[in-house]
Amino acid sequence: MTYILGLNAFHADAAACLVKDGELIAAVEEERFRRIKHWGGFPSESIRYCLAEAGISLGDVGHVAVNSDNRANRWRKLAYVLTSGVSPAYVLSRLRQRGERADIAGNLKRDLPEQDFRGTVHAVEHHLCHLASAFLVSPYDNAVAVSVDGFGDFSSAAWGLGQGGALQVDGRVFFPHSLGVFYEAMTQFIGFPHYGDEYKVMGLAPYGEPRYAEQMKQIVRLKDDGSFALDLRYFRHASGGGANYSVKEGIPSGGRLWNDALTGLLGPARDPAAPLDDRHRDIARSAQVTYENAFFNLLGALHRRYDTDAVVLAGGCAYNSVANGKVLERSPFKKLYVQSAGGDAGGAIGAAFATWHKLGGPEAKRHFVMDHAYWGPSATPDQIASAIAARRADFDAAGCTIERIGDEAALCRRTAQAISDGKVIGWFQGRLEWGPRALGNRSILGDPRRADMKDILNLKIKRRESFRPFAPSILREAVPAWFETDDDVPFMMQVFRIRAEKRAEIPAVTHVDGTGRLQTVTWAGNPRYARLIQAFDDLTGVPIVLNTSFNENEPVVCRPEEAIDCFLRTKMDVLVLGDTFIER
Fold it and tell me: Which of 372, 455, 419 is nearest to 576 (CA)?
């Protein structure tokens, strides 16, 4: 019996997973325990959870695999240092930090002192982890694997062919050229300064026109082989004195990526406190168009090279669900898979499965398929009851009624009725989702038919920018009737066009450009959520509910205590904790 612990450590979205004999047992991001978005550092709480879920100790773990390898691309790093003018002091500082972080055994001993690790540590190159996290858990025996992100182990993109349990890396784009850096720089330029704000640009883009797309062709230059290059005059990241990514007390941050020369091309940058105007919307649209052009230039070249119909995506740019939703129409590929944690957290899974196949050789047949995202902590009925009892006085003060409904069909009918009445529902069920998307186990739900539901949610709970869309969860069998593209989207990683004749029926989940970032729900993948959506369909004729993450400017809730806190401090109407129905 072989246990492999996979880690993303000392980087944003720190995470851990546990693989047993080639099967995933558990996976969770550290932010869910620390309650700080994108928490970086060493994922000790995630490790504890994974071990507890499997009922083992660290002493039972034979291998720890980490999604970073300081030795990767070392000659390119050295050549860059010698020719770029980066100060030796800066290089020594970075190397010292990396050395401290690479001591995985030491970190395990420090953070889990009561447990004894006697296994082997494997450092796995960053983009190989991304590629493995996509292909080695995909439903395909043959696929082109593509990783695109900011940077990791001195490269920003990689690609190759996956066949059976084998995965080869055939090409890369190296530092300092990066589509992720381009998109993040544009995000900062538009006035969204925080780590991970790129999704705001994606949501803003449909409100603008691509008026700056021609100028941006100077910033990102496309090559015939599918690769790309940045015009470094517009960026600061390529020098040691420029923008430095760091993680302090678990909080990731980076300095300004764009250079002042960018204002000569696009005009002044937006102050984060200033209102958004049409120029900012146009820059967002132009940035999205520029990214998509580069992305599809790469996919087109890879299809010509490999002549394979399936493609799998990973890396932070795999969260660009707008681009992902166009893969089947703008590229020759006919099949697409993006796992639920495509970014750096997912590298923990990539490191574990890459190590499993390396250790197992030909006999490590690839058979595990990640077809759902529910790999995190759950709560027992007793734990839920205890959490409710501890806050009984607060529930009473809020005028809540508390009722246990043991019959699942009745519970779903009651909840569906509340949704159809325009109420906002906190829905806490089963195991926590792996990845950033709430997928029906830690979700806030609403009626997609109500044009005012976006405003209601933003007023009562989310308190976020009005241009950001909410997502539709739809029964898988209903997709062809409501969307122009018919495909499996279990992890909410693709945006499709809603059929024109249906858009007026579901205004709360229809974005300004007529699209929706859908989640397809199956009875096999999440039977209780499917039953709820079916109950709503029975009431309304609409097999869709509005779904957003169960949180209020914090990581998605993990435990019932956090769900109760969020419910009580916001104006949510109903909280469904397992079988317990709580209503104000």
Answer: 419
pLDDT tens, residue by residue, 490-507: 999 999 999 999 999 999
For residues 167 and 189, is the Cβ–Cβ distance under 8 A? no
Picking from 439, 426, 329, 418, the residue whose alpha carbon sits closest to that of residue 375 is 439
CB atoms within 10 A of CB 90: 15
Q: What is the pTM of this model?
A: 0.94
CA distance 426 to 444: 5
- H helix count then E strand count, the chain: 21, 25
Question: Helices in 501-575 by DSSP H: which ranges?
Answer: 527-540, 560-569
In the numeric block, the tokens 């691309």 are attached to: 73
User: Residue 474 and residue 448: Cα distance in Å, rounded?
Assistant: 11
Q: Describe the strand order of the beta sheet including 3-8 as a list of residue ranges.
A: 23-29, 15-20, 3-8, 63-66, 120-123
Alpha helices in 339-489 (DSSP H): 347-360, 381-390, 392-397, 408-420, 453-457, 479-482
Q: Smallest Cα–Cα separation from 150: which of 244, 264, 56, 215?
A: 244
Task: Quick: pLDDT tens for 96-144.
Answer: 555 556 789 999 999 999 999 999 999 999 999 999 999 999 999 999 9
